[in-house]
Amino acid sequence: AAPEALDRMRQPVLAAMLLGLASPSRGASLAAARASRALRVRSGRAFASASAVAKEPRFITTPIYYVNGQPHIGHVYTSLACDVVARFSRLDGHKVLFLTGTDEHGQKVEQSACKAGESPQDFADRVSDTFRALLPLYDFSADQFIRTTEARHKEAAAALWSALVESGDLYLGAYEGWYSVRDECFYTEEELVDGNAPTGAEVEWVAESSYFFRLSRYRQRLEEHILANPDFIGPASRRNEVLAFMRDGLRDLSVSRTTFTWGVPVPGPPPPDGLSHVMYVWLDALTNYLTALGYPDTEAADFRSFWPASLHVVGKDILRFHAIYWPAFLMAAGLPLPKRVFAHGWWMNEGEKMSKSVGNVVDPVALVQRYGPDPVRHFLLSDVTFGADGDFSEKKLVESSNAKLANELGNLAYRTLSFTQKQCGGAVPAPDAFSEDDLQLLAEAAALLPQLRTHVDSMALHRYSQGVSGLASAANRYIDVQAPWALKKSEPARMRTVLYVLIEVLRHLALYSQPVTPRIGAALLEQLGVPEGGGRSFAAVGEGSALQPGQPLPPPRIVFQRIEEADEAEGGGEAPPPAAALTAALTAAEEAALVAEVGAAGERVRSLKESGAGSEEVGGAVATLLELKARLPPDHELNAKPAKKKKSKAAKA
């Protein structure tokens, strides 16, 4: 802008400052705001829109998933919730450690391995890889993938056991009662429902020598902690369930087994009963949260930074282990308790509980290969109140994706950017004076961040996408009312201002989209010419990081294509996954090079396994292989599932 134009814009602001107006009129305030914002936009001046105060680190965890079966949609849901919180927290200036992994010990794993004709370790290796494969498929940003068969974990579990011994909370006794192998859980007679566990799992009568943990000693301390910290267990309904369970007291807990050997051996001298004990799988598994931070070295950098955990996200069926047993173990060991445990509900399928026998289990791999990660992520995190049970419907997934991602956001972006490309020379237009409608929409875009922060901090994750959708809806109403296409001849300056406002709102929508739909967020930021780095964090929210007039914009493209439903597709065939719209198709040369990389990565995995390398090193190589394969087209032969090997007669015998 010319110097005289800048002076004219400064005048209302300077006048208000010099006169010291404590309560300027709405008109004067609006004029000052318009001029002030225009001045900053045109002159390129910026100011910090986020606090420079360091934010506390966040340790966010999924439960480690039991390897007695293949991953299902529930595992994806838990990991997704953690991923959204982790991504949001990183963008919001927190140092984050996001942990997931697999629980690989216990009687059920030993039995499943025997049925598969494999050793427990080989079985665990194979199934653990299927869980690790979900990370690149769903764009989960986990910092660590832990396995309970790792040497570091066995050391940590043994150290926690020793701490419980030192506290005087372990004693040798005999257990006799009902036990569910599938749940790896003890149940009282009163808890059984029609002769089965509350989860529907079969139970068996168990009688064996066992070490016990004095859980009864910690009932009062636990109750006092829960009552004094209302957010310790969420949602409130689950908190009330835990308090009700504890009301009549807690029984001491059996924490070792002697009837199988696949587990972490109990450390210390041989017990008086002369039997070989392995740690109860839940005491073993829960310790993983400490293992990842370097325990038993409580002076390790990660332990000092990240413990106590900020958030444990779990399914409601394992809340008892995390909200009662785990805090009691930590109290006995003299360690701080996690800040929050949040239990979500279960997913049903078209109103029925998912079951292999019914045949309605949703395959998370097939689902994401058909639709791509963003539509599935968006549906799971927006369709159901987080914490409640949900009803999965592929039809609703398609409808939601088309309505919110393709029409509401994608169409808005393409309309705005393609019109800008034609009318403004492919660059960010220079705005003129802002109207009240302009300033209101810009303010709404910037003001959404604290609302989204509240939703994440309160674990109302379903409200996150609703908030982003609300801003997109407001922008769609704005473009329809302002109709920039009708202004190009009569009021070109006003047209440029409207387009500038829309581009700024799109920038905010792109920033806010990153936690739930990271590919769409990244694609839209690329469309706006925002380079990777600080400009894509939440520090860029607000006018201080506004796109500058004259900044070139890449040629527009559709960031999310509408999903063609099966009955609309030509010939009734399946629609291609919309993820293809977010990344350019590989050229023949690029695909050939990627296939070669996959082959080399696969060879490295085989070589490491054959040489007896540690599970952590092998796991890292497997993760690299899976990430490379995820970049290939979903229908590529290297992404095809291998045929199941038939057992030989000798093996069956």
Low-confidence stretches: 1-52, 568-585, 644-653
Q: What would you call the quaternary organization?
A: single chain
Number of continuous helical runs: 23
- Through-space gap between termini: 86 Å
Residue share in β-strands: 5-15%
Helix content: 40-55%
Nearest-angstrom radius of gyration?
28 Å
Question: How would you state the average pLDDT, rounded?
Answer: 85
- Coarse structural class: alpha/beta
* Main beta-sheet annotation: 7 strands, parallel
Q: Can you describe what's shown?
A:
The radius of gyration is 28 Å and the shape is elongated. The strands form 4 sheets. Strands 1, 2, 3, 4, 8, 12 and 13 form a 7-stranded parallel beta sheet that branches. Strands 6-5-7-9 form a 4-stranded antiparallel beta sheet, with no helix packed on it. By secondary structure, the protein is of the alpha/beta class. The N and C termini lie far apart (86 Å). The longest helix is centred in the middle third of the chain and has 30 residues, at 394-423. The protein contains 23 helices and 16 strands. It has helices spanning 3-19, 26-43, 73-91, 107-115, 120-132, 134-137, 151-166, 219-228, 236-246, 281-286, 288-291, 301-306, 319-333, 364-371, 373-382, 394-423, 436-457, 462-482, 492-513, 518-527, 588-610, 615-630, 649-652; strands spanning 58-61, 65-66, 96-103, 144-147, 170-180, 185-187, 204-213, 233-234, 253-254, 256-257, 278-279, 311-315, 341-344, 347-349, 352-353, 390-392. Helices cover 48% and strands 10% of the residues.
